Amino acid sequence: MKSPIISIDALNKVVAALPEDNLAASRRAALDQLRQDGLPGGREEDWKYTDISGAVAIANRWLEAGAEMPRGGVSAADDIVRTIEADWVVIDNGQIDAQSVDATAIAGVDIERLSGSAEQLTPSGRLGDLNAALLRDGLRISVAAATELARPIGILIVDHADSAATVSQIRVDIDVAANSSASFIEYHTSRGDAELYANSVVNVTLGDGSRADYVRIQDRDRVHEQTGYQSVTVGRDAVLRHCAFDFGGRLIRNDLVIDLANPGSNAEFAGLYLIGDGQHIDNHTRTDHRTGPTESHQEYRGILTGKARGVWNGKAIVHKGADGTDAEQANHNLLLSKNAEIDAKPELEIYADDVKCSHGTTVGQLDETALFYLRTRGLSRHQAKQVLTRAFAQAIVGKSPISSLHEFLADRIAGRLDQLMQETDA
Amino acid sequence: MLEIKNLKTSIGGTEILRGLSLRVDAGEVHAIMGPNGSGKSTLAQVIAGHSDYEVTSGTVEFKGNDLLELEPEERAHEGIFLGFQYPVEIPGVNNAYLLKAAVNARRKHQGLDEIDAFEFLKLAKEKMALLHMDPKLLNRGVNEGFSGGEKKRNEILQMAMLEPSLAILDETDSGLDIDALRAVAEGVNALRTPDRAIVLVTHYQRLLDYIEPDHVHVLSEGRIARSGDKSLALELEERGYDWVREAANG
After folding, report:
1. What is the ipTM of this complex?
2. 0.90 exceeded by the pTM?
3. Do residue A378 and residue B162 have CB atoms under 8 angstroms apart?
4. Which CATH architecture has domain B2-249?
């Protein structure tokens, strides 16, 4: 397997045609870096199960066709804005929806366009370079010190591809200042029959003594592809609660990179992926314990059917001197079909002495004894399966930090599981 | 109510039941006893419809219909209840939810509306009081972290809520202390009615001090080796299972 190659000539042309705004310098720097480093793939350990050459091919076709950016997905996502209680800002095919941003006025929160800021973009990996090179615009959301937000801030990322290959770059920087607490919902959705590749970068900085509750929901069309990179730097005695749900997409790669650089930094994160035939969903997490005492606890769960392919890789690095680290990782998978496949790998690298680390991974089928037990109580086989799969998934909803989302998530999970079971029985 | 004729079953090619016949009528309590490996639990599982057991010959009729044709849930709808020897722990599935789903599945089959939520709770709490069960167990995961006694009481609670025509209780007495045994026996005795039959599968005579059987059968090597009234259980207790085995072979 070779690393995917982006068409640099076409990329140069498209980047050159973007406006000469504050982002121009970052774009050029990212382009140079990209030319030098290329894109991830090939034999690289972190990419051996996930080949993004299909997504890169979509990007090349899009670049060569002139890199058009259609808009108009906002109305398609109206139901989400209506259903989920939050202050929503909308990014429509990689472009900021001015109306939603202008209408959002929250005390203690500043939302600005990255193109309006003189600051250079922080490098965010090789796909982050692709993102920065092609970025039209992004958002910076800053929560002032000692602010407690009453409602979640919603970031709705809606893409649509109606007739031709479409690519979008999404970038959001979030800064929660000291002693503040805020919650965020990052929601990805996409429509349309044409091929689509979305590439998102979200960098979060949590100030000392702050807390962020973060839920990411990915519910894209089943033919669309996405790579997403999120970094979170956690301050002293700051707390991150993060939960990620993947329902849709053809090829999805999520990287969550958590930096526990200060004493008392604490991260609890969880994820759920419900994968059907033809889907490939990869969750890579990396947690750096740079000092002690710091804590990280993660649990990802997946239910897979058909020829679904799942990847979970949880890496925790306990750096030299990070004594008093407590790191825990768990990954549990339920395979409903013979052809579904999961590659689950916990990784612990420990360079300190006084640490508490544990990991556990399970892959199994539905428990036949439990199914029989439920059936002897009068539940049909279908009903019994429904009960067991929902219970398995519900454990992650329980860990999700924004309780006003629980009902929405439970409904969505029930609906998605019914689809998966239909695929299983078909 | 239940008529088993010359039933032979095997699992993984090993024959367990080797021509078992048994007739259970409404209003009766039968005790099925026998040494380990005699096929007691297999019989219970086969009646409930476990798919691991292959029926190679014989017939089982329930209320005049072929039982072997039915799926486990259809058997439950028709009024068969199996109390498990090892009740299954199902984390994440609420105990009250399962009870209600089970009651409603049966009601649907009977053409009745779903049970009213208030009515359900009232009924469940009544039955739990009878079994000396902590009402908090309703809101826990099914059998999740329950003690041995709590699990068995939970089985009896399900039975009491479902009001089956035929209840088969598989080693319900095993692992119970005397208080739990009394509570379970009370729960079972409360369900003794002329239109209902109960089959107790047990290794020891102890349970029968609390639930008096009409008939006692001793299973040996996959067949009923001897049948009698409750005095047979006492005789067994005294003379041991070898006595039955020898008598059957001799």
Report:
1. 0.96
2. yes
3. yes
4. 3-Layer(aba) Sandwich (3.40)
